[in-house]
Amino acid sequence: MSTSPIIGRYDASGNLIGLIPDNAPSHTPHVPPNTLRDVNNNPAGLVDPATGLPVAVSIAYDSSGNPLIPSGSMAALGASGLLYYGQAATRCKLPTAIDTANKQARGRRTHTSQANYSKGRWQIVVPNFYQVIGSIGSPGVGEAGPGAPLSVTAAIEYPIGATLTQVTFGGSATGTAADKSFVVSDGISLAIPKGERFIVHLFQSCSGGLVTQTGPEGQLASTVYNDATQKAASGLTDTTMVLGQAIANTTGGTGVGCCAILSWTTAPSVFMAGDSIVNGTGDGAYPQNSYPAAENAYGALGVFERALVTQCGYIIAAMPGEFACNIALGIGTSYYANRLALSKYCSHVIGEWGVNDFNGGRTTANMAADVATIANAFGQPVYWSTSTPCGVTSTDNYTTYANQTAGTGNANRIAFNQLLRTHQIGALSGFFDVCSVLEQGRDSGKWITYQNARVVADGSATNTKVISSATAAFTPADLGQSIMVSSSAFNQAYIVDVAANGGSATINQYLPTGTGLTVTIGYKNATADGNHPGQCAVNVPASTGVLNISRLR
Fold first, then answer.
1. Is 360 exposed, middle or buried (0-12, 13-18, 19+ CB in 10 A)?
2. What percent of the chain has pLDDT over 90?
3. Which has the closest alpha carbon to 510: 461, 453, 452, 473?
4. In this structure, are 169 and 234 located in the same domain?
5. Structural domain contains residue 369
6. What is the pLDDT of residues 495-534, one digit of tens each?
7. What is the CATH number of the domain that holds 123?
8. Is 80 inside any structural domain?
9. pTM
10. Max CA pair span of the chain
């Protein structure tokens, strides 16, 4: 693969009509690597002198001269409307685990196009590595593989329900991802307008096991998406080119899918890097297990993905339990090699690490130095999220502000957020203040609360999903409301049915056996464990606009 830059040439209407140099990786262009310049080697203007229209630079392309990875000098891309080749779809995620019991998988996942260039060309990227965490200050390996190559076949279904287009790899229907690596497909011509949904079908085989992704990106059984992953030790049939294929989800909540989907675009794209908060811990694992008000119609999970899913293409690069200090120690090594390579498909990076560091005793100075090291390693503009309350305890399941106690790392967290807000970490291009809508007042170290519940005091249950009220206290208005039963705060529990006479209600989870149970209806809190945004909190940054990517520069 060449690492010489490549430039797009445009006609008077802004259509891409050629590449400079045209389809010739062996040709040395006039533009130095990692530098945004025009064809006359002028650093200013970034225009094609033949048309006066913008050009974009990429520093890597395949054997046919097609660009693969955008330049590390990406500050102008997206923000200035320049055309580049990079991440252009939603719901791409990096694996967090390995399933050694199963060696085959077939699956489908729905994505939304964020490509705003009409001359469609698409490539998919399939991983054969997964993320591994160490202990604080001791990174470990960071990334691991199954110990064997991965074989993959793929197809893109668009329009959905109508057409399957086979994806090839080096001209073959089957691609191979080396152990602890990833494979990039050939480009296929397919016009998928911005905002349109499409499905990627995959069939994978690996003798060492399958690297898997968690959350709805892994499996999502909903009427909106009908995503699925079926895994087996052997015996699965490759149905990637069978329209309307029947796939039965394998239990376990993990699945296989693309870690990047590429096309031409002028819109920003985000490499969303972080820990369990970015991964969506605390949100419902699937829409059918969360109360309806929290269901995201786009299949997004967690504070950050819910905010990004309608705005841009992105890659979720999150590992629960990860530490910023370990990333800083390993980002220039094999610890982070695949992730750093994949980040180059995105015009911008948003980092979130911090909660685990502050809970683990890291200081403000430690964290600031780690963030600077991380930001300098990426190359493209890096933004950071303010660190949300961590290690918070509560005597009433976080339903009130007064009964919460800030964690021991709160002083360092406050000081770090102040450095972000006053732009004192020079390696960063900016920050997103999610704490402004998730924290109960600036620097309190406590989560927001909502006091709008009512109580049914005479509940009874017998280890089923039905709870009864002797006074018929349930009403039709309770349908869809989140609940707490006595002191048991279920994860994303809500009422799915109310008896016509009000004498009972059915919820989505099994209830404790007992009488005289207190049923709090409309129970909402911003966290269930003091560390992760949950229930009513996960949609707040999206609805308030604090993660609006128009701020990216």
1. middle
2. 53
3. 461
4. yes
5. yes
6. 889 999 999 999 888 887 888 888 888 766 788 889 999 7
7. 3.40.50.1110
8. no
9. 0.80
10. 83
The CA–CA distances, whole Å, from 167 to 121, 140, 243 equal 12, 36, 14
| Number of domains making up the chain | 3
How far apart (Å, rounded) are the C-alpha atoms in residues 370 and 31?
Answer: 33
Contact 276, 328 (CB under 8 A): no
Cis upstream peptide for 149 (omega within 30°): no
Name the amino acid, one letter, at 472.
Answer: A
- With respect to residue 531, please indicate whether it lies within any of the assigned structural domains: no
Q: How far apart are CA 68 and CA 61, in angstroms?
A: 5
Gap between the Cα atoms of 134 and 62, Å rounded? 35
**CA angle 9-14-18, nearest 5°?**
25
What pLDDT, on the 0 to 100 scale, is given for residue 490?
55
Pair 397, 512 in one domain: no
Specify whether 475 is located in the same domain as 378.
Answer: no
For residue 492, what pLDDT is reported?
A: 57
**CB-based burial label for 552 (10 Å; 0-12, 13-18, 19+):** buried
* Helix H or strand E segment including 388: none
Highest mean pLDDT among 13-22, 32-41, 79-88, 233-242: 233-242
Residues 131 and 235 in one domain: yes
Q: Flag whether pLDDT at 160 surpasses 50.
A: yes
Residue 300 sits in the same domain as residue 395: yes
- Kindly report the number of other CB atoms within 10 A of residue 432's CB atom: 23
Q: Is residue 466 part of a domain?
A: yes
- Mean pLDDT, all residues of the chain: 81
- Asked whether the predicted pLDDT for residue 438 surpasses 90, the reply is yes
Residue 2: give the domain boundaries: 1-73
The two structure tokens encoding residue 334: 């094999």
Contact in structure between 519 and 481 (CB atoms under 8 Å) = no
- Tell me the CA end-to-end span of the chain in Å, nearest whole number: 29
Whether residues 59 and 147 share a domain: the answer is no
Does one domain contain both 460 and 431? Answer: no
Question: Is pLDDT at 26 greater than 80 in this prediction?
Answer: no
Residue 318 tokens, joined: 């999150």
7 vs 312, more confident? 312
* Judgement on whether residues 124 and 270 belong to the same structural domain of the protein: yes
Mean pLDDT of 43-54: 43
Q: Which helix (H) or strand (E) holds 141?
A: none
Which amino acid, 462?
A: T
Measured in degrees and rounded to the nearest 5, phi and psi for residue 274 equal: 175, -155
DSSP 8-state class, residue 531: S
What is the three-state SS of 487-522? CECCCCCEEEEECCCCCEEEECCCCCCEEEEEEEEC
Per-residue confidence band for 121, with pLDDT thresholds at 50, 70 and 90: confident
pLDDT digits (tens, 9 = 90+) for 337-347: 999 999 989 98
